[in-house]
Amino acid sequence: MTSEGVERRLAAVLAADVAGYSLLMGADEVGTLAALKAHRREIADPTIAAHRGRIFKTTGDGMLVESRASSKQ
After folding, report:
1. Could you tell me which of 14, 23, 18, 20 has the C-alpha nearest to residue 57?
2. pLDDT at 7
3. What distances in angstroms separate CA 34 from CA 13, 29, 37, 54, 67, one per listed residue?
4. Which are the contacts of 31, defined by CB distance < 8 A and separation ≥ 6?
5. Which pLDDT tens digits describe the chain residue by residue (73 residues)?
6. What pLDDT does residue 15 have?
7. Which residues contact 65 (CB under 8 A, 6 or more apart)?
8. Which is nearest to 28 in space by CA: 36, 16, 17?
9. What residues form DSSP beta bridges with 65?
10. Is there a contact between 13 and 64 (Cβ–Cβ < 8 Å)?
């Protein structure tokens, strides 16, 4: 082993989607998309950034998010 140590990464992964999304889209597509974008902009994005996370995949109403913490030992 080198004298530099070992880098370890802890990661938390979040998988989320909107309950009833298809029903909401069927009732009001424009309003549902506007609400989804507003919630992401106002709630999800700042929370993810505060935890040094990143969205690595979105699928319509869903997203996969990773948050990492690094430490050298």
Report:
1. 14
2. 81
3. 26, 9, 5, 22, 26
4. none
5. 556 788 887 889 999 999 999 999 999 999 999 999 999 999 999 999 999 999 999 998 999 999 986 555 5
6. 95
7. 13, 14, 15, 16, 48, 53, 54, 55, 56
8. 36
9. 14, 55
10. yes
- What per-residue confidence (pLDDT) applies to 3? 60
Helix H or strand E segment including 26:
helix 21-27
| Cα torsion 57, 18, 41, 54: sign | negative
Task: Round to whole Å and give the CA distance between 63 and 11.
Answer: 16
- pLDDT value of position 33: 95
